[in-house]
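[recover] target loaded
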């Protein structure tokens, strides 16, 4: 989730990591969503029919 595969705590002035350095704060979603959503949507479409349901 970091540009150029280099860790960043901020992107375009928006804090995109919490103090633990791993999780995303809610304020980061406008920056993260455009990059992450297509990946998750594709993964969901490719999931096998017998994948566990939550």
């Amino acid at each position: 989730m970091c540009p150029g595969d280099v860790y960043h705590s901020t992107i375009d002035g928006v804090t995109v990591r919490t103090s633990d350095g791993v999780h995303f704060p809610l304020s980061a979603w406008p920056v993260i969503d455009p990059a992450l959503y297509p990946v998750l949507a594709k993964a969901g479409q490719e999931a096998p029919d017998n994948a566990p349901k939550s």
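[recover] notes: The chain has one domain: 3-44.
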